[in-house]
Specification:
It comes from Anabaenopsis elenkinii CCIBt3563. With about 425 residues, the chain is an alpha+beta fold. The chain has helices at about 10-20, 35-40, 55-60, 75-80, 80-85, 95-105, 105-115, 130-140, 160-170, 240-260, 295-300, 305-315, 355, 395-405, 420-425; strands spanning about 1-5, 25-30, 45, 65-70, 90, 120-125, 140-145, 155-160, 185, 190-200, 205, 210-215, 215-220, 220-225, 230-235, 265-275, 280-285, 330-335, 360-365, 370, 375-380, 385-390. The chain has 15 helices and 22 strands.
């Protein structure tokens, strides 16, 4: 079968790479793809925008595409699934109504409260004065969130009143685009974050391995929030006992809540959770798609063919599938970023050392890269590469990733030196 993967990041490279490991997959087409997917065997890039639904539909119908897998949240929130399904195509990814679970933090918070899902206390505001007054009444630290899609950067943990007020003003001033129509002010939870990505056909929901992302730009989890600077899986903080509770108290309640709103949700439901020191947990947010960079550590450990799971979700027969099979061991990924990210950065810098990095046990997933006219791989984004190591244990997987990333060179390359510090300690 032929599959079209929508997106151009490390997540999409990982999806294409995993799908192509199956004998059932003849070809993967990535829209628009990146430098990694351009050089992947049996994979080609199609230079269309991720919101060119009509162009994708026409290509898919003319070229015998059997399945469309949507990577990023933006086209999902815009209704790509609804459009492509109306053209007779099979799509993995929720419809626009379901994608609200990520596209609006206020909508998601209301769903969680209605469904009885444990979550942080919060209030939603449409103007700055009321939001600032609420912050004063609640005290510091407190979390300020832009309501809509902000590429993983619309969350500010304020440790002073001034910081909170500045964040509120920045959101309402449009720093995060249309995500600034509402502000969500939320209690600050203490503990360790864990990402639980689950596959669902709208009736059954099955979690993948839990992962832990590293959101901050700096070592020791300092500095600004980013889209994610590295990750590892399976995250040991999410014990089997905890995962059993997350299944019943979060995942199943979320699907029931979506169904009660008349939403047939098929795709990935990703719960970002905070695990408190006493082992209790609350949901920080839901996402409507595969996580990035979590996908780059989960898929290398997946034994069950990915397309079998995706098709079972799309065809609403996930409940008939055997348990998801996993390879033993651990995976860790380190993000090589452009200097200046998550602020301003330059692009077009020539990258060397990728082949040298890909020793046995190391895979380099491209994120912000492209192939230039000279057939060189150059930087084309803030997060440039994900160097993923696989090992029998975390020490080995993390060491593999860092050995690999040391071979990577481009002007201004930056990466955290402490990915996996919690699990190593």
């Amino acid at each position: 079968m032929k599959v079209l993967v929508v997106g151009n990041g490390g997540r999409e490279h990982a999806l294409a790479w995993k799908l192509l490991q199956s004998a059932q997959i003849e070809q993967v087409v990535c829209v628009p793809g990146n430098g990694g997917t351009a050089t992947l065997e049996r994979c080609q890039n199609l230079p269309l925008a991720v919101d060119d639904f009509e162009g994708m539909s026409r290509y898919a119908l003319e070229n015998g595409i059997s399945l469309v897998v949507v990577g990023p949240e933006v086209p999902l929130a815009m209704g790509i699934t609804d459009y492509l399904q109306s053209q007779g195509l099979m799509v993995f990814g929720p419809v626009k109504a379901g994608a609200q679970i990520e596209a609006s933090k206020a909508w998601a918070k209301a769903l969680m409260q209605e469904a009885g899902i444990p979550t942080a206390k919060a209030a939603v505001f449409t103007e700055a004065t009321a939001a600032k007054s609420y912050v004063k009444s609640q005290g510091i630290p407190i979390v300020i969130k832009a309501d809509g899609l902000a590429a993983g950067k619309g969350v500010i943990v304020a440790t002073t009143q001034e910081q909170a007020e500045t964040a509120i003003e920045a959101i309402f001033a449009g720093q995060f685009g249309s995500a600034g129509n509402f502000v969500v002010v939320e209690e600050c939870l203490i503990g360790e974050e864990v990402s639980v990505l689950a596959l669902t056909d709208g009736l059954t929901i099955r979690p993948l391995l839990p992962a832990q992302d590293h959101k901050r730009i700096g070592d020791g989890d300092t500095g600004e929030n980013t889209g994610g600077m590295g990750a590892y899986a399976p995250a040991p903080i999410a014990t089997p006992q905890l995962m059993a509770r997350i299944q019943t108290e979060v995942l199943e309640r979320a699907i029931a809540g979506l169904k009660s709103r008349g939403i047939d949700y098929r795709g990935v439901l990703y719960a970002g959770l905070m695990i408190a020191p006493d082992g209790e947990f609350k949901v920080l947010e839901f996402n409507c798609r595969f996580g990035d960079p979590e996908t780059q550590v989960i898929l290398p450990l997946l034994e069950t063919p990915l397309e079998e799971l995706i098709l079972a979700c799309v065809q609403q027969r996930l409940g008939e599938m055997p348990p998801i099979a996993w390879k033993p061991g651990a995976a860790a990924t380190v993000v090589a970023a452009s200097g200046g990210y998550p602020g301003k950065y330059d692009t077009g810098k020539v990258i060397t050392g990728i082949k040298e990095a890909e020793a046995p046990g190391v895979t380099v997933f491209h994120a912000g890269t492209k192939l230039n006219q000279q057939q060189e791989i150059v930087t084309d984004g803030g997060r440039v590469l994900n160097v993923t190591g696989i090992g029998e244990n975390f020490q080995q997987a993390i060491a593999q990733a860092y050995t690999g990333i040391k071979s990577i060179q481009f002007q201004g390359v930056y990466y955290r030196q402490d990915i996996g510090h919690r699990v190593l300690n």
